[in-house]
Each structure stands twice: as C-alpha cells, then as structure tokens.
Amino acid sequence: MSIEIIFKDVENDSIVPRLGGYSLLPENIEWPSNPNGDKLTMVLCLPTNFLNQVLNLNLPEAHILSVFTTYKKEDYFLDLITYHGDKEDLKNIKRGFTQVLLHKKGNIRNEANFLIPAQEFILGEELNIEENSDDMEFYCGSLMGKQPSLLQLENLDLDNYQFCLQIYGGDFPKEFHDIFFLSDSVGYLFLNKNGSQDEMGVFFTQCT
C-alpha cells in the first residue's frame, strides 16, 4: 500500500515532516558537502516518529532523518544525482553527492547556498496498486509506502534497501522546480534494511 503525499505551506522551522525549510542538524555534525566541495541543500526533514508510524519502521524515536542533495542554479548537475542501474552512478552518489543522515534534533541552521520554503507532508489517498500493475505508471506525484511509482527497476542494486518515499520535482515551490535539475524528475529515498548508522539510506533521482 502506498499513500499520496500532498503539501501545504508551513514555517521553515516546524518540527513536522516536510520538504525544505531549515535543517535541524546538530552543531556538532558538519554540514554535508559533496566531493567537489559544494555544500548540499536540504530537501527533506523527516521526524522518525512519523516514519515509524506510517511505514511501520523501527527507527530511533525522537530523531530526524535529513536528506541532502547537490543543487546548483547555473551549472549542470543531473548526472551527479541520477541512478538508473549503472553501478558507477550508485557508487558516485554514495560518495556524497546526496546524503541521508539520522540525527538527534538540533537547533535550526542552514549553511547551504539555498533555502527551500518549507512544505508540510499531508497524507492523501491510499494508492492500492500492486507492484506489477500498469496503473501505477499513471501516478507521477509524491508518495510514501510500500511501492514506488515510475521507478525504472532494471538492474538497481538495492536489495539491502527498502523503499521509503518518492518526491516529484514539480511538487517543490515554483522557484525550486529544478531542484533535481529537471522539473519532471523524481527523487527516491531508500532506507538501509540493516539500520546502519554509517549508511542510513540512499537518495537518487530518475527522469523518464
């Protein structure tokens, strides 16, 4: 079962599941940068209590799962965050072009060059569509749950991960429709089934 995500404006420092807004990364954790030295932009702030309740996970309570990505207004960066099955692409992403961090709640901060206006997650309709159903191909928005939509599964080396959610680039505020370079790109968040603190998950984009 997957659930549609819709969004509404919320304060940038809100302690709710949201895209954008201020990070709650504690000061003792260095702001994430990619291998090129670019500071990453935070795209998702997800309280673990919310994830545990909706997805029946067992993450540490009262923590935050933060997702960061490479983002530039002027330069091409699509290839740095996209994964369609090439092992080198996944290896490159895991080098730090996107990062998934689990941490305790800290004070609000932002050290990136950009701040995305916060949008709170509102859970919408259940999408009761089976894994191999063609109907799933018609849903191209944001969702969370058991089954992703539009994910090109050929040769994806994700056996040690479970799907968490997907975010459609067009669901970001208008000035950030290019957050994944193309407005019709979709970002996919997968979490490590082993719950490794060193590698909580992987975040990548695809465009069809």
Descriptive overview:
The protein is mainly beta. It has one domain: Roll (Hypothetical protein YwqG fold). The protein contains three helices and ten strands; from the N terminus they run E-E-E-H-E-H-H-E-E-E-E-E-E. The protein has a ten-stranded antiparallel sheet with strand order 5-4-3-2-6-1-7-8-9-10. 36% of the residues are buried.
Oligomer: single chain
Q: Please report the total strand number as a whole number.
A: 10
CATH topology: Hypothetical protein YwqG fold
- Can you identify the CATH superfamily? YwqG-like
State the separation between the terminal residues, measured CA to CA.
Answer: 23 Å
Shape: globular
Domain count: the total is: 1
Average predicted local confidence, pLDDT: 91
Organism: Metasolibacillus meyeri
Protein name: DUF1963 domain-containing protein
